[in-house]
Amino acid sequence: MNVDLKNKIVVITGASKGIGRELARNFAYEGASVVINYFHSENEAIELFKEINNYNSNCLLAKADVTNYDDVLNMYHQVINKYSRVDILINNAGKCDDDLIYFMSEEKWNRIIDVNLTGTFLCCKVFTKIMARQNCGKIFNISSLKGQEGCSGQTNYSASKAGVIGFTKSLAKEVGQFNISVNAVCPGFIVTDLNRHNQKKVSIARNKSVLDLSSTLSDFINFMMMMCSDNIQGISGRVFTLDSRIL
Ligand code: NAP
C-alpha cells in the first residue's frame, strides 16, 4: 500500500523531543509540511528544524505553550498565514510527574491535567474551526495505556489520559458532520525523557509485553502515517492501543 503524505499540512504539538520529534522527522521525510511545536526545548526544536530543512524546506517552527490559549491562537495564525489550511492535528505534547496520592500536590495534579488534557482541548478548539470551514480534517490525540488501565503513582497522568479518551469520543460525535475525524492513539512503551528516569517502569513494561518492545516506535510512526494518509477515511471516535502489554 502506498502511503502518500505529500503536501499534507500536519501540526504536531510537542515535536521537540521523543515521539513527536520522530513523527516530525518521518512526516517531513514523506513530503508533509510539518508544524514543529515546542515550548521549553528551543535548542532541540531548532536543531530538528535545521535537520529537516535539509530534505524538506516547507516546515514551520512554532513556539507555543499548549496550556495557554493566546499561545495556541498565535500558533494557529502562524500556520494559517503560511499554509492557509490544516489537514492533520496531532496532539502529542505531554508530561508526567508521578507521586503517590498522599504526596501528590495540587500543583502537580493541575500541571499534568493542564498539559495533557487542557492542551489537547485548546488545540482542538482552535484548529477545528479551520477544519470545519475546509469540511475535512483529521485529529489524533495521544493518550496512553495508563488512561485505560490506570497505574499506581500516576493518578494525575492516568486521569489526564483517560480524559483525553472521553474528550476524543465526544469531539468525534460533535465534528463528524464537518468530515473531521478524531481518534485517540496510545503508543506502545517507548523510552524517552518521559520515562527513562524510572527503570522500574521500563522493566515492568518489558515483563508485561508478550512481544519485543523494540519495535513499538516504528510501529507507532507507521500506524500514524497510514492513518493520516487518504487511504483511511471512515474511522473516528476510536482508541488504538499499539503494543502487546496484555499480561
Ligand atoms: P517527551 O520525550 O518527554 O516529550 C514531550 C514533548 O511534549 C516535548 O517535546 C515537550 O516540548 C512537549 N511539551 C511538554 N509540555 C508542553 C507544553 N506546555 N507546550 C507544548 N509542548 C509541551 O515525551 P514522549 O514520550 O515523547 O511523549 C509524547 C506523548 O506520548 C505524550 O503525550 C505522552 O504522554 C505519550 N505517551 C508516551 C509513551 C512512552 O512510552 N513514551 C507511552 C504512552 C503515551 P518542550 O520540551 O519543548 O516543552
Characterization of this structure:
- With about 250 residues, the chain is of the alpha/beta class.
- The protein contains eight helices and seven strands.
- Strands 3-2-1-4-5-6-7 form a seven-stranded parallel sheet, with helices on both faces.
- Strand 2, helix 2 and strand 3 form a beta-alpha-beta unit.
- Helix 1 (about 20-30) packs across helix 8, helix 3 packs parallel to helix 4 and helix 4 (about 105-135) runs parallel beside helix 6.
- It binds NADP nicotinamide-adenine-dinucleotide phosphate (NAP).
The unique ligands bound to this protein are: NADP nicotinamide-adenine-dinucleotide phosphate
Trace the largest sheet across and list its strands.
3-2-1-4-5-6-7
Radius of gyration: 17 Å
Which structural class matches the secondary elements?
Answer: alpha/beta
**Largest sheet composition:** 7 strands, parallel
Low-confidence stretches: none
Distance between the termini: 32 Å
